Amino acid sequence: MLQPGKPLKQSPQYVIEEEIGAGGFGVTYKAKHKD
Known about the structure:
The protein is mainly beta. It is 0% helix and 51% strand. The chain has one domain. The chain contains no helices and two strands. Strands 1-2 form a two-stranded antiparallel sheet. A hairpin with a 2-residue loop joins strand 1 and strand 2 (26-33). The radius of gyration is 10 Å and the shape is elongated. This is Serine/threonine-protein kinase-like domain protein. GO terms for molecular function: kinase activity.
């Protein structure tokens, strides 16, 4: 599971803000692009 405030390893220009949903296909997160 990804942690809020942490950058993505594959795309470090994006920072996780929150989980917005989960289901049979996986988890969806809200992320923000770092400027």
